[in-house]
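Q: My labmate handed me this sequence with no annotations at all. I'd like to see what the chain might look like in three dimensions before we decide whether it's worth expressing. Could you predict it?
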Amino acid sequence: MIESVKIPVIVSGATGKMGRETVKAIAKAEDMELIGAIGRNHMGEDIGEIAGCGELEIPVTNDLEVMLAQGAQEAHPAVMVDFTHPSRVYENIRSAIAYGVRPVIGTTGLSLSQINELSIFADKASMGCIVAPNFSIGVLIMQQAAIAACQYYQNIEIIEMHHNQKADAPSGTAIKTAQMIAELGRKFNTTNAPEKEHLTGARGAKTNDQINIHSVRLPGLVACQEVMFGGVGETYTIKHNVIDRASYMPGVLLCIRKCLELKSLVYGLEKLL
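A: Here is what I predict for the chain of 273 residues:
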């Protein structure tokens, strides 16, 4: 029997909470092979032991360039999954593409201009790249439900809640949800009374399409988003709550597989389904 070729995967940000979940998911996937783990702590330790899935014989390193060079030498195209920090993710993506390693990005905080620049870079290299503000299938369903509700409601606000170690606000998911709603070409919240904030930020952030986004950061939370609609005599709320980061893993694994089929950058998991 001919053994099938496994997808070589590098995890950047492997020692973080999302990185550890990703390591465990890749270790269980029959069509993938973890070849590198990049982190800022636990140097030299086995990432499998850190992630809690048993020894994998993959030591943690902080040298991204060396790992990407190794990925470029693999017989099968390699993929880099990035769960690092908004301050580093842009350069991580550019480096991966330059080495011929396909990036799958879960780190949020990229600006639209940065995404556009990376899209041009990926196009020139004919390189698949996926930037996904959220990997949860439930979030995609929530966003589609919000788009459907916009046909019947004109007043809308978004509340996103995350753990207090999240570095960016609003969340990439909230921004993406607002962008998807804005693509409908409608005007929202035009009937609101003129506002005066007595405390700056009391009404949250406001998009160019006048959609308010409120961010909450508390220990004990993982990730939660509510899209609230108001109408005459009623409100309608769509809510998605993550209670375990394992819920993101089916989407992460899907992106790893799909990335190999792409020749350009894709922004949003919904475009792959």
